[in-house]
Amino acid sequence: MNEARIDLAHAVALGSIGDEDHHAVQELLDSEDPAMRAEFVAEVRRTGEALSALAQATATPPPTELRGRLLAAIAEQPQVAS
What we know:
By secondary structure, the chain is mainly α. It is 72% helix and 0% strand.
């Protein structure tokens, strides 16, 4: 797989593709070359797994006072009529 397709797979895994990239992804997935399709899908999966592992390894709990601040901010919002 070439570098442009690898970059595209990474963008898909990040969920950050635009319309032009979306078209390129669709062309890859509609391709008649099953090996190329499988390689692209595998790269998206591997990238997603790596991002998930990174997120888990670097996650930090929110500050303990955050919940209270959020609830207070919500309570201060004006009521919206339905």
